[in-house]
Amino acid sequence: MDRAGVRITMLCEDTQHAAFARYFLELQGIHRREIRAKICPPGSQAASQWVVDTYLKELAEYRRRSNYQQLALAVMIDADNNSVAQRQAWLEQACDTAQISGRQGDEAVLYIVPQRNIETWFAYLRGDQINEHDCYPRYKFESDCRKDAGKLYQICRAGNLPPHFPESLRIACVEYQRLQNVIRRLP
Hints:
The protein is of the alpha/beta class.
């Protein structure tokens, strides 16, 4: 089922985030042409700060255009040594500081926050025993995460989360459900 009517802008810390999110969104029926990834330029600044700064600009653009286009904005930022809630609060605090309203309940604005980093999710989805505080190895090729995106898609779609499912993945399933709600409202 192609849902070419939804255009998604993804804000990502790196190309691995972008690859994973793209695969996941394609499984939800979003056509590749409708996904635009904005990735922190290497060496420019802390990737998490770049995501927050860019989020403020993209949120304003999303709100300006969403009245007449089917849009979504996905923000993918690692929690690093923070919690998922702290990272989400950081995004909301940035809005407060910029004197714009934070994310509203009916907006297709997703906060995707892997606890520690995206490699933690990959390790879990491969079946490894993990905790959300240690660092796990990167894939040699970014495209190697395709199976992980497929597994997460199946879990989120079924809505039957496995025992000991990491909290950050549970929250990610809730966030992706926000996008499903937008897709269901399409004509």
